[in-house]
Each structure stands twice: as C-alpha cells, then as structure tokens.
C-alpha cells in the first residue's frame, strides 16, 4: 500500500474531475441523439448552391455527433430563406432535432422591414458555417465584356439574372444600375443554378453569384465561354472588388450587401435549443469541417473550407447589426 500521494496522483485526480462533466454531457448527448433523425431545413429549392451546402453538411455531420443520428434534408423554399428561418421559431421542436440552413441573405430581413418575419437573428443559435462566400460577377464571353471597365462602358444593357427578394445576387447589379451602369436585372429565377442554365441558353448575359456557382461547370470558365469581372473578396488575382467600383457614398451599401456573405451559409438551431446541446452541435460542426473527406467534397462543389464557429458567427451578426445606420438600411431595402 502506498503511504503518500504524489504530484502525479494529484494531477490525475484533477484531470479526472475536470473531464467528468464533459464526459457526462457527451454521454447524455449520445443518449439523446442515439436512434434519432436530425432534419435539416434548406431555405431554397433543390439543385441550387444553398441546397448543395445543406446536403454537404447533412451527409457528414451525423457521424461527428455523439449517438450518430441519421440526417434528413428537407427543402422549404420561400422569401429568400425567411420561410425556413420562421419555421425554426414557429414550428420546429426546440430540442436540436430540427436545424436549418436558410440561405445567405436572410439574417437582415427583420431590419429591412420584410413582412411576416417571425425570427430575431440575435436569438437563433448558430452552429457553424463552412466559411465566407466570395461573390463573383460572371459574364458570357460572347458579350464582348471582359472586365469591369468593359461593363461600365458596354454599348448595350448587360442582362443579369436575379432571384426574388433583396439578395446579394440582385442587390449588387441593381446598385450598379442605379448609378448609371448599363445593367438590367431579369428576376424570377429560383436559384443560381437556374441562372447558370439561363446563361448557357443565352436568356441572360451575367450573374453575380457565389464563386461556387460554376464549380460544376469549370469547363465554361476554362474555355472562356464565361469570364469573371469582379468579386466580393480579393481572392481571385487581377480582379477588382465590387466595393472598389463605387463611390465612397455607396460603399456602406456595398458592405451591407456583402456583410451576410462574410458569414457564409450558416447552420442554425432554434432559439430554445438547450445550451449544452448547442455547444455539442457546434463542436461536431467544427470537427466535421476539419475532416479531410469533408474538405475534399466541399472543394468539388466550390465551397470554402475555412469554417466559422457558431460563436464567431453570432459575434459577426452582432457587429454587423450594430454598425448599420437607418439611412443605409432604407437605401438597401430599395435595391
């Protein structure tokens, strides 16, 4: 029998005490999710960029959640993500079995005066995002427009495909149009994939969309059939940012248009989800995002892999909202 307690014994005991609550929480989470199905609501229709991201997450996240629940993606399109976000507040169980990826342009809808918004972005529980979205202006090469300067001086109107609502896809071309650029928005497309198809069929000339929009049609970019004019982030060498194309007085509008894109396509939980379950889902998301197989699959669909954590997204939302003026909101709402 040992007659004294060593330093190693004390450290081991302290570690055991420290890890016990975590292990207990993990066991409780495993008990909760074991045999269950997590439904992930997608705020857009099948086939578009938001749908691809949602299914990417749905295909992987279950294996990183204690209890390894099954996952099911359900499309609930409407009002640029508002319907899906409202569902988390009004209908979804508040227990972590229903999550949502409403889209990229829904967080500020309550501030923009949209009707029938039932959610408060500061009360939703953010789980994670694959990373910031780089918006890119793509144009058909046969238009003769090969640069932002060419677009500014185009001899005819360049038709940009748009989606319903005030979204990044429509807001940026609309701002350029209002400032005298020869641009016209043809709205009504359900998602960016449909606009890409419309470009191939020569219904429209261009689209301002996430960089991933042409991930499955890189042949069009490689051949010069589709070309890049400008972008949100300074990622693509030799291409200007959208913000640099407008005067100082309009840059706050550009920053607002792109602010939500900086948070990517977040996975969110209902506001009443138990905190310990939210934390567990957040850990699972970041573990998933670090998985090589997940990153490889994300690359094939053009998704970023510099993941943002739930707390980072929440802080980003708070910072974005606190920095918005009423004048900027009113101007943006009319884009």
Report on this structure.
The protein is α/β, with parallel strands linked by helices and 335 residues long. It has 12 helices and 11 strands. It has helices at residues 7-33, 49-60, 82-90, 148-152, 168-178, 192-200, 218-222, 248-259, 275-289, 292-300, 310-322, 326-333; strands spanning 37-42, 70-75, 98-101, 125-129, 135-140, 158-161, 183-186, 206-210, 226-231, 267-269, 308-309. Strand 6, helix 5 (168-178) and strand 7 form a beta-alpha-beta unit. Helix 5 packs antiparallel against helix 8 (248-259) and helix 8 (248-259) crosses helix 12 (326-333). The longest helix has 27 residues, at 7-33.
Provide the domain count.
Answer: 2
Query: Main beta sheet: strand number and arrangement?
Result: 3 strands, parallel
Q: DSSP helix count?
A: 12
* Strand content bin: 15-25%
| CATH architectural label of the largest domain | 3-Layer(aba) Sandwich
Query: What is the string of SSEs from the N terminus onward?
Result: HEHEHEEEHEHEHEHEHEHHEHH
Low-confidence stretches: 1-20
CATH topology of the largest domain, which one? D-Maltodextrin-Binding Protein, domain 2
Helix content: 40-55%
């Amino acid at each position: 029998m040992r007659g004294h307690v060593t330093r190693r014994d004390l450290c081991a005991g302290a570690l055991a005490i420290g890890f016990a609550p975590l292990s207990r929480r993990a066991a409780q989470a495993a008990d909760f999710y074991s045999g269950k199905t997590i439904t992930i609501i997608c705020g857009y229709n099948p086939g578009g960029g938001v749908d691809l991201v949602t299914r990417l997450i749905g295909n992987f996240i279950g294996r990183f959640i204690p209890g390894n629940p099954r996952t099911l993606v359900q499309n609930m399109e409407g009002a640029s993500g508002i319907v899906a976000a409202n569902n988390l507040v009004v209908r979804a169980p508040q227990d972590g079995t229903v999550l949502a990826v409403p889209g990229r342009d829904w967080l500020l809808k309550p501030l923009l005066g949209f009707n029938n918004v039932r959610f408060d972005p500061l009360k939703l529980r953010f789980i994670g995002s694959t990373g910031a979205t780089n918006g890119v202006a793509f144009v058909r090469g046969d238009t003769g427009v090969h640069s932002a300067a060419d677009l500014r001086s185009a001899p005819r109107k360049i038709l940009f495909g748009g989606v319903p609502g005030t979204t990044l896809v429509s807001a940026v071309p609309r701002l350029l149009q209002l400032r005298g650029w020869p641009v016209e928005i043809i709205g009504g497309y359900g998602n960016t994939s449909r606009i890409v198809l419309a470009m191939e069929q020569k219904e429209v000339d261009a689209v301002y969309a996430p960089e991933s929009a042409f991930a499955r049609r890189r042949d069009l970019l490689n051949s010069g059939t589709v070309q890049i004019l400008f972008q949100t982030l300074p990622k693509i060498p030799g291409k200007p940012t959208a913000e640099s194309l407008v005067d100082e007085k309009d840059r706050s509008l550009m920053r607002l248009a792109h602010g939500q894109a900086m948070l990517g396509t977040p996975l969110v939980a209902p506001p009443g989800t138990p905190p310990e379950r939210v934390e567990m889902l957040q850990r699972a998301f970041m573990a998933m995002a670090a998985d090589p197989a997940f990153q490889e699959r994300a690359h094939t669909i053009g998704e970023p892999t510099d993941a943002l954590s739930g707390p980072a997204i929440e802080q980003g939302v708070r910072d974005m909202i606190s920095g918005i003026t009423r004048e900027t909101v009113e101007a943006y709402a009319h884009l």
